[in-house]
Amino acid sequence: MCLGIPGRVVEIHDDAGLRMATVDFGGIRREVCLSCTPEADVGSYVIVHVGFAITLVDEAEAGRTLDVLRAMASAVEGELGEPLP
User: Fold this and answer.
1) Per-residue pLDDT tens for 25-66?
2) All residues at 6 or more sequence positions from 5 whose CB lies less than 8 Å from its CB, including other chains
3) Angle 59-31-72 (CA atoms, 0-180°, nearest 5)?
C-alpha cells in the first residue's frame, strides 16, 4: 500500500540544485523534495509520497488525515519506518 502523508514544512534548503525541505509529521521529521510543489513555504502543509511533496493541503485537513493515519498505525509505520507519536 502506498500512502500520501501530510506534514508541515519546517525548513527549506537547496541540495545540489533541488529545493528540499525538512517536513514534520507530528513529531517525525524527514527530508522531502519540493520540486512538485514550488509554492510550498515554511509553515505550509504538504502531502508527501515517497519523499516528494505532491500537493499542498490546509492545516485542518492535515490534522484530520493524521488522526485517521494514527488509527492505522501499522500502515504508517510501514511508510515512514516508525509509528507516529
Assistant:
1) 888 899 999 999 999 999 999 999 999 999 999 999 999 988
2) 25, 47, 48, 49, 65, 66, 69, 76, 79, 80
3) 55
Spatial distance between the Cα atoms of 13 and 53, rounded to a whole number of angstroms: 14
Indicate whether this model's pTM tops 0.85.
Answer: no
Helices (H) and strands (E) in the chain, counts: 2, 5
What is the residue whose three cell numbers read 514544512?
9
Helix/strand/coil for 42 = coil
CA distances from 52 to 15, 35, 59, 70, 71 (A): 14, 8, 18, 21, 23
- Give the amino acid at 65: T
The dihedrals phi and psi of 69, each to the nearest 5 degrees, come to: -65, -35
